[in-house]
Amino acid sequence: MTIYVPQVQTPYIFQALLEEEKWQSFLASGVPTAQGFDEVWPTRNNLMPGDYVNIPQWKQAAPFGVVDISDTTTDGAFADISTDNIKVPVIRMQSLNKYTRYNEIRAGEDFRGSIEYTIGNRAAQANLTVLGKVLSACADVTSPSHVQDEGGDALTVAMLNTARGKLGDIGLSALTTLMCTMPVALDLFKDLQQNFKYAAPFAQFLIDGQALSVLGLRNLIVTDTLPGGAASSSYGLQYETFLLGEGSVFWAYQREPEIEFFANVPKVVTSYLVKVGMDFVLAPKGFQYSAPGGAVAGSPTLAQLEDPANWAQATENHRNIKFVKILSGGKSGA
């Protein structure tokens, strides 16, 4: 038996996604350009997982050289990037929750209390996981332009500045959000203590604007969803960290998740399950996706999304790609 939960309950899940701490910090950082499906593709009302869509792009920076500032036909030093072939897939996050008491999920108010934040948090974790894997894959496509490998060394303030230098002067001012794991955050904290006389406790460091300014940052997002942390044959543990610029990532979302209610009637007690499907598009600007073997049948898998072979740089000038991946040892947190 399948019963569709009333539509009034769908905003609860989406609101919980927006309110999840890490995802909320990511949205507030200005890194993603966020829009609903209906805003970006108003004529495509039936987008399905695996469909390809064009995403808005940066204006393309001109190559180095003399620029005629009196030329207004090309917007000075910039020209639009064509999006005709810059396509990325619609991804589906699915969550299946099991409950044993029907009364908890019958009414909208009860639904909000018992399910909303569980599924909303899972949606946020799914988005963050996809984000880390896609950023990692796309950085590898442009390596070494957007990858800095510090081997087994712990991340320091000096290394952050070196990573920014990969984008020249643009990187020094544009890459102001750091997304990292807890061990890497501990390494930066240790560097501040030893070399910058930082005396506040670690909990204060995570929210200290003055400490972030020393790091050249406006936002610090610590999450356990990033790739890395596995043993490397050469360096032991190695973690992936990302320096991100404002507007460097595009996120489009389905406003009304699909919700289905299932009842399972065994011999002892009846169990009830709520299945939620939430579609989204999440990709860094300046890249296009091409599934192995051609068209995707349904949502691409995480393995497909994290494979650099399935991504290609879509902008001629790598300075339009406003993020850098850093590989470091994360020793102090190991």
Measured distance between first and last alpha carbons:
49 Å
Shape: globular
Secondary-structure class: alpha+beta
Order of helices and strands: EHHEHEEEEEHHEHHEHHHEEEEEEEHEE
Could you tell me the strand content as a percent range?
25-35%
What is the gyration radius calculated from CA atoms?
Answer: 22 Å
Tally of alpha and pi helices: 11
Average pLDDT level: 78
Low-confidence stretches: 1-6, 61-83, 102-109
Helix content: 25-40%
| Beta strands, count | 18
Largest sheet, described in full?
Answer: 6 strands, mixed
Describe this entry's structure for a reader.
There is one protein chain. With 334 residues, the chain is α+β, with helices and mostly antiparallel strands. Helix content is 31%, strand content 28%. The protein is built from eleven helices and 18 strands. Strands 1, 2, 7, 13, 14 and 15 form a six-stranded mixed sheet that branches. Helix 1 (10-19) packs across helix 5 (108-141). The longest helix has 34 residues, at 108-141. It is globular. The termini are far apart.
In short:
The chain is of the alpha+beta class and 334 residues long. Helix content is 31%, strand content 28%.
Question: What characteristics describe this protein?
Answer:
single chain; 334 residues; alpha+beta; six-stranded mixed β-sheet; 11 helices; 18 strands; 31% helix; 28% strand; disordered N terminus
Secondary structure elements and their pairing?
Blueprint: E1 2-3, H1 10-19, H2 21-28, E2 32-36, H3 37-40, E3 52-54, E4 59-61, E5 78-80, E6 87-89, E7 91-99, H4 103-106, H5 108-141, E8 147-149, H6 157-164, H7 169-174, E9 175-180, H8 182-196, H9 202-205, H10 209-214, E10 219-222, E11 228-232, E12 236-245, E13 249-253, E14 258-264, E15 271-284, E16 287-289, H11 302-305, E17 311-313, E18 323-328
Parallel strand pairs: 2-13, 8-18, 9-10
Antiparallel strand pairs: 1-14, 3-6, 4-5, 7-15, 9-12, 11-12, 12-18, 13-15, 14-15, 16-17
